[in-house]
Amino acid sequence: MNTQKLHVFISLVETKKMTDTANLLGLSTPTVSFHIKSLEDDYGIKLFRTNAGGYRLTDAGEMLYHYAKQLSQINDALEKSVEDYKNGENGSIKLGASGVPAQLFMPELIHQLAERYPRIKVSLDVKTAPEIERRLLFQELDCGLVMETGNKEPDLVYEPITSDKIVLAFSKTHPFAGKDGLGESDLSDQTLLVHRLSSSTGHFSKSWLKEQKLQTEMIQLDSVSTIIKMLSYGKAVALISKRLIEKEDHLAYIEFQNQDLERQIHFVYHRNLWISDPFRYFQELVLELMEGMN
């Protein structure tokens, strides 16, 4: 359907004069006449009667005007919605994060994004890093913050934000507290809490324990906050993100001199993602975060 023809038709109905319609739309009078004739040919009906008072609608013209007006309003609303979406005035942004970045960074980032774009819908999906990467590959999410897993998908863009290290954490009431150093073999008689093995932290922990040939009782937990809570009881230790627990006053930690326990946190998105204004602003927030931490 030619919306320009309908627009000319609506204007002629409301002005009742060909010259007034031409002036209003910035068209020549013959062009207005051409559009009206073309519209009549399209539908096979007569739209106007002419008399000394100008153009008057036929019954068929009244019907067309009724629906043309509705279509015009819908089209105007559509154009405004698209423009608002491009400007970040509506729409949505779907974020993803693995456990550690979700707790460390997402609350502040989402707060600032919502302050700038209060009308867009923001959602956050917290899953393991491999699951977030899978959802980004299928473009079910717009972008995500994940701990590195050792694998990189070629269709995803990985921008490093900062580094983190897995440390051995425990309560300040634990026997390890206050020790200057700790041998890796000292873990053999400890109950070790780890994030589920499908997570990046769990994967790194499992690989490191295997390399060290350590056999220890291991408890897998889905929630990082649950691990922190269980550490407070003083009976267990955990391999966990240093950034996540260094502000926990009731916990202490020991760093092993092992580069294998250090990993990057990445900002990740699909190479073919359409870059909206809210996404671009979120990316700027992440870059500012990176500059502030490094």
TrEMBL record:
Keywords: DNA-binding, Transcription, Transcription regulation. This is LysR family transcriptional regulator. One of its GO terms (molecular function) is transcription cis-regulatory region binding. InterPro entries: LysR_HTH_N, LysR_subst-bd, WH-like_DNA-bd_sf, WH_DNA-bd_sf. It comes from Gracilibacillus salitolerans. Residues 1-58 form the HTH lysR-type domain. It comes from the Bacteria. Belongs to the LysR transcriptional regulatory family. Coiled coil: none annotated. The keyword Iron does not apply.
